Amino acid sequence: WFNPIFSHRPDTRGQKFVLSTDRLFLPVATTLRSENLPILDEIATKFPSDISSHIRIISYSQQENLNLSYRRALAVASYLKEKVGSDRYYWFASSVHSKEITDDRIEVIIN
């Protein structure tokens, strides 16, 4: 288990937020849990005003279900796009399967 939000750097660009998929989603679901949306709202406030920034949402999973993992990344991206405006940034969503990770997670990276 890890903290719902972990920022590696204090500056806006280069920030990475790590979120537990267990806190954001029910098992085998792609709908965001409404009680944890404030976590994503907080992350949205950290987005830079520079409209050329890149926002990457990467869903890491121990399971081989990359479709579920990718749809979760898209759900987070869609929510954040709605909060900050989809045309303000360059968006990228992907999923990664790895047996080496200890917890399923979603990373939101601002570049």
Which of globular, elongated, flat, extended, rod-shaped describes the shape? globular
Give the SSE order as H and E letters: EHHEHEE
Provide the gyration radius in Å.
13 Å
Low-confidence stretches: 1-11
Mean pLDDT: 86
Report the strand count.
4
Helix content: 25-40%
Helical run tally:
3
Structural class computed from helices and strand pairing: alpha+beta
Gap from first CA to last CA? 26 Å
Strand order of the largest sheet: 1-4-2-3
- Give me the oligomer status: single chain
Largest sheet: 4 strands, mixed
| Percentage of β-strand residues | 15-25%
Please give a structural write-up:
With 111 residues, the protein is α+β, with helices and mostly antiparallel strands. The protein is 28% helix and 24% strand. It is built from three helices and four strands. The protein has helices at 21-24, 37-44, 66-84, and strands spanning 16-20, 54-61, 90-97, 105-110. A four-stranded mixed sheet has the order 1-4-2-3. Strand 2 (54-61), helix 3 and strand 3 (90-97) form a beta-alpha-beta unit. The longest helix is centred in the last third of the chain and has 19 residues, at 66-84. It is globular, with a radius of gyration of 13 Å. The two termini are 26 Å apart. 23% of the residues are buried. Residues 1-11 have low confidence and may be disordered.
Topology (SSEs and partners):
Layout: E1 16-20, H1 21-24, H2 37-44, E2 54-61, H3 66-84, E3 90-97, E4 105-110
Parallel strand pairs: 2-3
Antiparallel strand pairs: 1-4, 2-4
